[in-house]
Design a protein that fits this description.
Layout: E1 11-14, E2 31-37, H1 41-44, H2 47-57, E3 61-68, H3 74-86, E4 91-96, H4 98-110, E5 138-142, E6 154-159, E7 164-169, E8 177-180, H5 190-209, H6 215-237, H7 242-257, H8 263-274, H9 280-297, H10 302-311, H11 320-333, H12 354-358, H13 375-385
Parallel strand pairs: 1-8, 2-3, 2-4, 4-5, 5-8
Antiparallel strand pairs: 6-7
């Protein structure tokens, strides 16, 4: 008998053009802090103006906070929380990709609680506290298909002072409302379409091989894998393909409905803690073959890997190696087979520092792998992936 909980309080407006319906919803406050990145894409492509217009139609006031960097930091969070107070906002509206949504959820938490966001981190140098108050409401409008932050409680925040990258989560960080409008993703360049889409793929593949996987989680994950394998190469080759963009966006959201990450995510978070400019999806791709092949070589996840190979369109797969071949082909089809850790500044010498760091950062569940990995195993995977 499988026992599991499933709780999804976020209302999702899904589909091309759904941003135009935002003003029809009952928004969770009277003044929003619109949170965006340091970049200018949401301004350049008119997404910010669209959001402002929707808020005006809804008779909701707003202020803008546009300081979020990729791999958002504790400083971003605390500055945003202060902006909520300074502008007297009563909810947060995230407009952007995973970094913006993650940071926005933490801003909402810290707008209602004292101290520093790292007080609520469970990483080695985190305070490991529980917040006294729930986060103020969050609305997410995603402009990417990769993290599924629009439908979960989780956020990933970097603390540059202690060189840690930690997952932070609280039940109150579920967005109240999210808009998944694939029209906002048309402008994502091919390279980042691949990085983001493969992040969604790995959310699902880690879920399927997870020792704690169950039918509800597997259902969403296998459908995610099927959709990504079918449509991500199309979206990569032709960013204007509306159907492919919508299906990749759907896959990403499905993955977020029941995500059970393994140590692969933790391993990448270690890489990102040493190299803050490393794109999360790119880091996951860099270690993917070595990580999954480690288990395939040992026949440690044959049944789940065969299921994933079938979902990817492999006819009559018989072993985990069939999944590895399909994974390699998918990575090649989205132009990522030549990604090199060294191109992101990672040195072969520093890999020896990574296994110990795995026990300090928060990412996936290191106890959920098909085989429990030792520090020597982690190092072997990193070294095998290095180029």
């Amino acid at each position: 008998m499988y026992n599991f909980d499933f709780y999804m309080p976020t209302k999702v407006l899904f589909g091309p053009g759904r941003l135009k319906d935002l003003h029809k919803e009952t928004l969770p406050g009277r003044k929003a802090l619109i949170v965006t990145s340091q970049g200018n894409s949401v301004k350049k492509y008119g997404y910010l103006d669209q959001v402002k217009n929707e808020l005006r139609l809804a008779k909701v006031e707003f202020a803008l906070f546009d300081e979020i960097r990729p791999n958002p930091t504790t400083h971003n969070v605390m500055a945003g929380a202060q902006a909520v107070k300074d502008y007297k906002c009563d909810f947060v509206l995230a407009l952007g990709g995973g970094s913006v949504m993650d940071c926005s959820k933490c801003i909402a938490l810290m707008a209602a609680n004292g101290g520093d966001i790292w007080d609520y981190s469970y990483s080695a140098h985190g305070g490991k506290r529980q917040p006294e108050n729930p986060a103020i409401p969050v609305v997410c409008i995603t402009t990417s298909a990769g993290t599924a932050s629009e439908v979960d409680t989780d956020a990933v925040i970097s603390n540059d002072d202690v060189q840690e990258k930690s997952g932070i989560a609280h039940i109150s960080m579920f967005p109240t409302l999210s808009v998944v409008d694939s029209e906002l993703m048309i402008s994502v360049p091919a390279k980042y379409t691949a990085f983001q889409g493969m992040d969604a793929f790995f959310h699902a593949s880690e879920t399927v091989i997870n020792r704690k996987c169950h039918p509800m989680a597997e259902m969403f994950a296998l459908k995610t894998i099927e959709l990504i394998a079918t449509y991500l190469p199309i979206a990569y080759e032709d960013g204007d393909n509306r159907e492919a963009r919508a299906m990749v966006a759907l896959a990403n959201t499905f993955a977020g409905y029941y995500m059970k990450c393994t140590s692969a995510h933790t391993m990448e978070h270690v890489m990102g803690s040493f190299h803050p400019d490393l794109v999360h999806g790119a880091g996951l791709i860099q270690i993917a073959h070595a990580y999954y092949n480690f288990f395939a070589e040992r026949q440690a996840a044959e049944v789940p890997m065969i299921k994933m190979a079938k979902a990817m369109g492999v006819e009559n797969p018989t072993s985990g190696k069939d999944f590895i071949k399909a994974l390699d082909q998918l990575i090649q089809s989205v132009g990522c087979s030549d990604l090199r850790m060294s191109d992101d500044g990672i040195t072969e010498e520093e890999l020896t520092l990574y296994p110990a760091k795995i026990h300090e950062v928060m990412g996936g569940n290191t106890k959920a792998d098909p085989l429990l990995l030792s520090d020597a195993d982690y190092l072997e995977i990193y070294q095998s992936a290095y180029k």
